[in-house]
Amino acid sequence: MKTSALTQAGLDRLHQAMAARVENRSLPGIVTLVAQGDDVYVDVIGAMAFGSDRPMRRDTIFRITSMTKPILGAATMLLVDDGRLALDEPISRLLPELATRRVLKRVDGPIDETVPADRPITVEDLLTFRPGYGFIIVEPTRFNPPYPVIQRAEELQLAMAQPQRCP
Hints:
Blueprint: H1 8-23, E1 29-36, E2 39-46, H2 68-81, E3 102-104, E4 114-116, H3 123-127, H4 148-155
């Protein structure tokens, strides 16, 4: 199964990278699948759970959440590959309302004390979750006194909520 897309060297690098995550106990096990045309590569590594003797299997069922980012990332890279977008392109062409973005002068300063952003947000920034605006993900009580931006986020109920447990 050697094609320009699926080389043995590339598949070996993928296996090594995934096996390292199991070896360092970041994950108990992992299943990777890469397909290009009729070529399909599946690699099964590790166990179903930490401390388990049950090996991971090709047909192991996984809970998958938040698939928006990888799907949009793949679609964006197709547009980059077609020359319709560039990674260093400012997103203001597509979202003009972000062209004159302003940011807080100081993270602990008043919310009306802003300055122009140093640079535009790029396509690459969005793909790597660096959208150019800051956020603080901690409980407001951890700041004494809380920053004004945190207080305002609480008033607008923009703070992150506790995750819901699945049955």
